[in-house]
Each structure stands twice: as C-alpha cells, then as structure tokens.
Sequence to fold (259 residues):
Amino acid sequence: MEISDLIRFSLVIPAHNEEQFLPRLLDSVNTARKQWRRGPAAIEVIVADNVSSDRTAAVAEERGCRVVEVEERRIASVRNGGAAVAGGEILCFVDADSEIHPDTFNAIEDSLATGRVVAGATGVRMERWSLGIAVTWAIFMPMVWLTRMDTGVVFCQREDFLAIGGYDERRFFAEDVQFLWDLRRIGRRRKQRLTRLRTVKALGSTRKFDLHGDWHYLSDLFGLLPKMLWSPRASSEFANKYWYGKQRVPGGVSRTSKE
Fold:
C-alpha cells in the first residue's frame, strides 16, 4: 500500500514570509488532527513556500509539514503548487495567518458524506472588531449568504479539483471566488451544492485592516473598481500594490507592504 493511500485529507497552506503567523496556525491544525475520528496520521499538511526570505520553510519542516517551493508570485499558482503534491482524497486550503477550529476535519467529513455537498468553506470569525470592519462585514455578507461562497478553510474532493483545473492561474486576485464558482457549476450537474460550515469557523486575520486601516475596503478598493473594470493595467497595478509588491519582511509586517 502506498503512503498516499492512507491519506484522507491534504491541507494546503500558501505562505510567503509567514514565520510569525505559521506556528499559531500549525498549533491549531495539530489540535484538529488529533480530534479527527480517524486519527492524525491520515491528514497531511503541505506548506507551499512562495519564495520566502524568512524561516517559513524551516518552521514548516520543523513542525513536520511537507514543504513545496513555488516561485510564481501568484496566489492561485501557490495553492495549485501545494495541491500538485497532495495525496489526500479531500483537499483543503487555508491562509497561513489563520487558525482553524478543533472540529474542522470532522465537520468537513460529515458534510461531504451526505452526498449533497460538492464543496464549501468554514467561514471565519474576525480576530478583532471595529466600526469599519463591521461595516465592511455587513456589506459583503449578503453576497456570501446568497452564493454560499465563503472563506476560511475551503475544501473539495480531489477529483473535483482536478476536473475544474484547480485555481485559475490567470487571475492575480479573486481566484478563490472563481474556484468556488467553478465547483458550484459542476455540483449543479449532480444536484450538489456549496455549503458553509458555520459551526467550525476559522479565525479570520485582520492583518490587512491593521496595515491599511479599518475603512480601507470602502476607501481604497471600491474607489479603484471603476478603473479596474475599464483598464486591465489598473487591475494589474492594484494587485501588485495590494498583494504582490514589497511584501512582508522577516520578523513582522512591513508598513510599506500591500500584502
């Protein structure tokens, strides 16, 4: 029997200079692995290291994770790079600055076992709250309720991941929305739906709010939307500034960073 035959879950963590936050996430992952009914051995953790200049890869290896190097600075490529080496029947994806619920894997297993679910996400509980964050949350949540497309720990069957070609690597951002939309489409053919596992919400980092301000989604992002719709160059410039420019520096968050 191959080792991959024993793996049920593959958790993929895209990471660029995440030495500071990765240990917190991995602590929560270890707790959830121990709490899974079939035991921790059947859950592999893959850190897709995206040209980090800090100890991200070393921290992951020290904690027993499988590390794969991905050079392309595009989050879709990083997620796909991790998934390419995954051996699990169920693929899960979570951001490195997050923290997962102890019962995450049990909830995902139970959800897919119904046969009515094609894929889904756990959703998040915010790390902190403010008026700006609450207003932003209130604006975005109706769309989440209507579409069932959420964030947190995103999961699907490996065969469905392959069927849609994984995350769209042509996209610099919103690849996570497209990913769930594609899964939703194939699920409809089988009368399956997306789901939100609201009882096992992950911790949602407020790092971008800490860096850009609690109102930045309204002031910066919405102000750029008209330009982005009319100009592909504006979209590219915005993505490079907000996600892929001068990134987190080792040991903390750079105040000149837009990731």
Summary: Residues 251-259 have pLDDT under 50 and may be disordered. The beta strands are 9-15, 43-49, 66-69, 90-93, 117-121, 124-126, 154-157, 193-196, 202-204.
